[in-house]
Amino acid sequence: MILRSAPIARALTICLPRASRSFLTGSSTRSNQNRTFDPIRTPNDLHTLTLLSAADNRPLITFWSASWCSTCQAVKPLVTSLIEDEKVGQAEGGLGFAVVELDSPMIGDLGVKYMITSMPTLLAFSRQEAQMETKLIKPNEMKNKEFLREWLLSEAKRGGRAGGSGGSLLGSLFGGQH
Q1: How far apart are CA 55 and CA 146, in angstroms?
Q2: Domain that holds residue 112
Q3: How many domains does the chain have?
Q4: How many whole angstroms separate alpha carbon 94 and alpha carbon 56?
Q5: CA distances (Å), 15 to each of 44, 105, 150, in order?
Q6: Which helix (H) or strand (E) holds 97?
Q7: Residue 92 sits in a domain of what CATH number?
Q8: Are strands 35-36 and 96-101 parallel, antiparallel or unpaired?
Q9: Of 23, 55, 101, 131, which sits with the fewest C-beta atoms within 10 Å of its C-beta?
């Protein structure tokens, strides 16, 4: 997707995290590389990244954390390594990844909205829909590298299509895959 309107492109450049700005100048073909975004500190940050991921037909993996959470600090490097270093999910179309900083003063009630009841939590978004049925909340599962790899692969295979709350009917009506 190439944005042809300069005012729209400028507006998106201002509000998108640094890692996603390449979206504005990229070619019209989708890159299946995994993308790591700046931390989410406001509800608008999450909204922007879910929009970007939906437009890119790429699931967004969110890691809900707080600076004081020692378990979060132990799990985050494992998740990051699988996505960035081992590139888990790239062959399936790629993943977006961002940490949601729940202790950010501007985060508001975002944790309540997505029923984040423990930290860390891994929650995938597909077509802007939170995939509540696959949310991970058990630290022992997140610390198990093979379990985590399989979860990430499963979310990547979803490919941003037909999330748990629907989407397949419209995709079928308009020729989309599901």
Answers
A1: 30
A2: 29-163
A3: 1
A4: 10
A5: 9, 18, 33
A6: strand 96-101
A7: 3.40.30.10
A8: parallel
A9: 55
Cα atoms in the 13 Å half-sphere on the side-chain side of 165:
9
Look at residue 175 and tell me if it is in a domain.
no
Residue partners of 129: CB distance under 8 A and separation at least 6 = 163, 164, 165, 166, 167
> Is residue 5, in this structure, part of any structural domain at all?
no
The tens-digit pLDDT sequence of the chain (178 residues) is 344 444 444 444 444 444 444 444 443 345 789 999 999 999 999 999 999 999 999 999 999 999 999 999 999 999 999 999 999 999 999 999 999 999 999 999 999 999 999 999 999 999 999 999 999 999 999 999 999 999 999 999 987 554 444 333 333 333 333 3
Distances (CA, A) of 5 to 24, 57, 65, 160: 11, 22, 37, 26
The answer to whether residue 15 is domain-embedded is no
User: What's the length of the chain?
Assistant: 178
Q: Is residue 100 included in any domain, yes or no?
A: yes
Nearest CA-CA partner of 126 in 91, 165, 98? 165
